[in-house]
Amino acid sequence: xxxxxxxxxxxxxxxxxxxxxxxxxxxxxxxxxxxxxxxxxxxxxxxxxxxxxxxxxxxxxxxxxxxxxxxxxxxxxxxxxxxxxxxxxxxxxxxxxxxxxxxxxxxxxxxxxxxxxxxxxxxxxxxxxxxxxxxxxxxxxxxxxxxxxxxxxxxxxxxxxxxxxxxxxxxxxxxxxxxxxxxxxxxxxxxxxxxxxxxxxxxxxxxxxxxxxxxxxxxxxxxxxxxxxxxxxxxxxxxxxxxxxxxxxxxxxxxxxxxxxxxxxxxxxxxxxxxxxxxxxxxxxxxxxxxxxxxxxxxxxxxxxxxxxxxxxxxxxxxxxxxxxxxxxxxxxxxxxxxxxxxxxxxxxxxxxxxxxxxxxxxxxxxxxxxxxxxxxxxxxxxxxxxxxxxxxxxxxxxxxxxxxxxxxxxxxxxxxxxxxxxxxxxxxxxxxxxxxxxxxxxxxxxxxxxxxxxxxxxxxxx
Length: 463
Prior knowledge:
With 463 residues, the chain is an alpha/beta fold. Helix content is 37%, strand content 11%. It is built from 19 helices and 14 strands. Helix 12 (271-279) crosses helix 14 (305-322). The longest helix has 18 residues, at 305-322. It is globular, with a radius of gyration of 25 Å. Mean pLDDT is 93; it is low at 456-463.
């Protein structure tokens, strides 16, 4: 536990506003920090578990040496992240026990509004000025957080642990007040870069049950198939964006924090999709299908490729009807657990057939608190105990990443090696289905060859 590494008395996890208030009130009332053990959203140490109602995790001494035990322990933690259904968890160490209290209750809408109604500077700390500031601030400075939490359930995301799967939202009045304040900034140019959160088009819990009974421990809301209880409604978000558009001095409101495309497709009302395309896309819409291989998508907790194909078609149709030329920027990930070279090549062929040339590629690396990280370490899926293939060799990871950008001359050698290792030398040649030519050309010729493939033929008139 990081609590032991830090040698602290108490650890706060999650978003923290409510636990910090309760801790402050307890200390102000004269309690010692060692006696503050009942605050939700905190972790503490104890010598005795006899009077504590909790689930006993396998002791650290066992999880440290057994991957099977580690996966079992992780799954118990993963299924106890909801503020309504979760129980306290305890893990034993050589000289103490570490107890994790259930997550803090989500903020109500008025509480959420009050947090974002405080007088923030909206600037980096002055200590960074000597280094030229923080460049990343430019992208987020004129953005607005409208929601918190995510029921998307992507296995490589840690949101379930620190924000929860139950979505909370700010009121329209709170968000509109913040948008108006942005227009008072001296360097505001009329563009609000984003109105969203973990997933921009989530503004309410996935179903009515989540409000009173909590989220399902094992069932997922969207993948592999949407739950029958899922409520799909974009009307509140559509109206919010429409109100922000009408604020004086606001020229454009973009949605850049990510649209969950499978959720959007389930909406029988097409009005939001059309307004999104017409008013809130800055020429390019970011979407994250992540992969196309069925077994890789299953390990990711993402829907099948047919869902993204349907979304792309609908996006194109709406653009054509509106007379607009806008594009989808899909994000893909290489080397995720469950993805071997054959799956990586399947993705490269898909990119070839769809005419997609990604400028960026994300290579999976394990990060704390995700189901995918558990898969990476244990080489098994903790949800079903099945063994899975995990690419860990740096060279293989480099090949998988190169296949996503197989057209780049710098990736030629890696792509050729990957195709030969996988027995797919049929993709090396000059045919229309080939990924690379049989020999490495100069960068100029290589680029010219692929540009010729991607351009329609030029018909020349006879003299």
